[in-house]
UniProtKB/TrEMBL annotation:
WD repeats by residue range: 247-271, 860-894
Pfam families reported for this sequence: WD40
Highest classification ranks of the organism: Eukaryota, Fungi, Dikarya, Ascomycota, Pezizomycotina
Repeat recorded as keyword: yes
Biological source species: Clohesyomyces aquaticus
Compartmental location: Cytoplasm
Record's protein name: WD40-repeat-containing domain protein
Amino acid sequence: MSPVLQHEHTLVPVTALATHDPLLYAGEGPYLRLYQTKNNYFLSTKQVFKSQSIHGVRVLPKSTHHVILILWGGFLVRALEIKISASDGGDQLEIESLQLSPTVRASDWILDLSICSHDNPKSSALTEAVCAAVTAHNALLELTIESVDDIQDRNDVSRPLRLRISDLTSSSRSILYAAHLLWESPNHVLIAAGTAFGEIILWSWTRGTGTISISRIHRVFLGHEGSVFGVCISNFPRKRQNEVSRRLLASCSDDRTIRIWDISGISIEETSPNSTHLETQRTRHTGFSNETLDSQISAPSCLAVGWGHASRVWTVDFLDIPGIDGTFIVSAAEDATSRLWEFVKKENGTHSGPENSPFTLAQLNSFACHNGKNIWSTTICRDPSGLMQLLSGAADGQITVASLNAVSQGHTVRSRPRVSEYSVQDIITLSQPSTDITALPHTTPSHKSSKLAEFFRSYAFVGGSSFILTTNSGKVYLETVRHQHDSSTTKVITNSRQLDDREDLLGYSVCTGESSVDIAFVVGSRGQIYVYKNGSLRTDPIFAVAGKVGSMFARRIDDHDMEDSHIILLITLVGQKNAQLLFVDIPTDPEKKSPTVSRAVSVPLPELQTGLVITSMAYVNTLGEVDYISLGFRRGSVAIYSISRNRATVHESQNDEASLMKIVEQVHGKETVTAMLFYPSSTESNEWTIRANGYLYSVGRDGHLSIHHIDFSANTVSLLHNLALPMGPNLEGLYHSMDSLMIFGFSSTKLILYNSTKEKEEMAVETGGAHRSWAFQPHDDGLTNTLVWTRASSMNVCVQERPSHQIIRHGGHGREIKAVAVSPPGVSGTIKRLIATGAEDTDIKIFEYPDHGTTTRRTLRKHTTGIQHLQWSDDGNYLFSSGGREEFYVWRIRVLAQFATVDVLAVCESVFEPEDKDSDLRITSFDVQRRDGAFLIAMVFSDSTIKISSYSPTAAHIWQTLAKGTYTTTCLTQCVFLSPPLLLTASTDGHTATWTLPSTTTHPHTSDTQTAEPLTWSHPAKLHQSSSKSMASVALSPETTLIVSGGDDCSLSFLVTEYQDTEPDRARRHPPIIVTRAHASAVTACAIVRHDESIFVITSGNDQWVRLWEVVPRLGDSTTAVADGDALEIRRVRKIKTNVADVSDMEVLDQGNEGARVLICGVGMEVIRIAWDA
């Protein structure tokens, strides 16, 4: 039997969303995916259309577990009946049946569809629903959904629904980009239509008697300076206290604005004696009005304009939910953000803006939950607790849910972080026993220029719900934070207590804490260190140092053989070349004495190499005779010390000193190393095995996360991972939580909490920037986080009880994928095969494909232009990437098994430097071969030049340019090594050329210096009328290579070359075989699969067809040519439609006896399975 093509996995833009408890419905390409809203659990997938993407979903509920969906896309409409049931426990739902109706085709592209919720007197007993739809040329259609009569159609049990579609009005001359319609009654429909010319046409349709109906234009709103992409009519008039009730229309546009229009007073039930004239007026309207000529229907300027999106706004929707006080709008845009707005009256009666309107659109929140560009779909729902949520689907294929602020039933439900602001006077008032915290007034901080002005100095968390703060006057306060939401107050501090008022803290104080043992330390300018243990009522002096303390760092030590807890406290002294490391014993028995310092160790600082400013610390408790400490410095270096475990008392430790082992320079370039963590690499079952080596995690103000492997016994340090994060550049801390590595820092004026394992933002709080006193504390539950910071002399406290958003379906790139490469089996000694994709968003993503679904493992961020080509090394340890501006990077990839937080490690090991730093050339393609331990790399450029270079990571000069050449004036697009001395290229002139490589390429890097030799081309062969867009090759024998090329002229070309040892600088080439009209568009991707003795070629292009070809070689021996025609026989085998638009590349994932899998990339990704014996 011949092979069969099957869809196995699809990840494309999410173009439609709808909810009806308990299910979420998401349209992704032609597929409808069902999720359970309670826990975001995926339930099922149903293919609705053959290839047409789903553009909209409307829900007709029949009961809690029975719904009918009306789905449309382009010209097509279909109904889906869904029946679900609950499991025995009731928490998990099961799909009982999914039954589709036949597909009906409308006369035009459908923009919006609405179900009539009113009883229609003309409906029959079999009518399930009557819908109205508006098209791209402003025509109104009626869609009737009927149940199949079992008596008349007994055999059609698999299709219980049928659709009938009819025209209510004819098309107009207008070209619409957006429309929204509402049923006012069974006989009246109100339509808002946004045109390509920036107008909004408000018109209505009224059903008359018999076959007569009336349609007319009520208003034409002018004001947008670009095409209108979204319109929405409010379901009912909006009214706030002491305001006139208004019905509103919202619109969004190419001009990046959101506008609100008043449509109050429009009556669509009015009849007119000249209905024919009104219909003529509507159909002749072009959507390009002149305000002077169309004065009768032109409307006044809008009520309010909202600015905030950075690019085109695609959708706008009212939060039309009864019981909400106020008018709220949600928008989504090309900038991959969705925003929440409120339509409010301007303060103080100011009348600025459009036509001096007294109203404005106030932005309440912004949600950046997607990658790249374009949020295509949004919907609003409520969670089980009644909290309103915004669901969004975007071009990255990701579905997210974010909580909204809403007012429901008279009380405020807040899901955003709760933020309270306090002045020093507020804290003093709170610390008084009689203070009622709910009645605390807001006071404006007073600014004083005196050095004795009272303000907040520093903060340190003592536990998950309490922190201490110091003031400029030397006072120390303990603050208790409310984590549970209380609707009766907006304040988050429940209690305040003054612990101390110390003279040596006057004017200067530093504090730090270790929340795991509920302890904090405070020090002033004189060097006296105080300790506070949670539960006590004061601070106690614990140790004194000679000099002014610059900073303190506290870490807990876990010793299984010790009864009490222990803290390592590092003290840095301003201007001194030694730091102090204190061992603090903390009794676990409350009846024992307070914490004491049992040992003090001097830490010498290598001033010349690192400087004297320590900025971070990591302590390594090896459970052996020697411990280690790593110190991070402001200059970007890390110093590693050894410390003997033979504990001397604090009185005997005058000569107790840490020994410097190694200095690792430029861990974060020249930027500050802000935080470090150490994880032992031991996988022994006994957790108390001596830890001789491990992994040092660090973040810095270069915006990078770095991971080094440290072998203490061998005193070696190797860099495993160094990547930029999307939240930088001021990364300030990291910690481990629930199998995820969490990193927090400042991006512009916000503090961001980022889950680097799941590559997801968890928290974003506006603070004003990094240059201020602040402290951050995660809660043990892994969800709640507390932030305290100083802004404008006030203390702000923020509590977030849940992540800023949740991901229902994980996505990928937010822009078009341009290149894909699959690692060979056994990468880095494991069985994992990694997929690397590069896109126009300049990111490279590393995926895995387990269990028929892609999982993002890592994102590589360094390129500044779109990715052009990707290729793995033969052992899978290196990934090579190219882009514009002659960017060529070499990535070292490692996969660590049984590593919880980061299992795919990557570091940009080298950069190929261009000859001209201002070059704008693209490296359109390259090929890599390993020769004598070095990598031979052939690169082709957009200016028709070619370079052959050698890369050896262990050589003194790691890069050597071995040869250069120029083709013609056309852009080179492809290159592939044919044999050790031969290279084949293709270009935009449709020809291939063969290049003979110099002898230096056979054994590269044999000397430290190498002069580039000239390259010349020969043996051109015409494959296409224009550009070669894709190329793949396979060895038919040690001497013979098959080359397949897809062209811009829709053709597919096959070329066979033979290499002979007797003529090493030449290749015998058979005449190319050209299959014309292989596709209906450019052939942009191709791949080759071998099965038994057969060769199969898979191709795809902009026509979105995937075609399978069988190639049968008909070659003679090495001395004779083919006697009777072509060297190959080409057969068309199968074809299937792909859901990926703008296909750019494809790669074979795996192949075996049962079948093969091919990954197709473009606007999204899709895996097509080839079943050999289906």
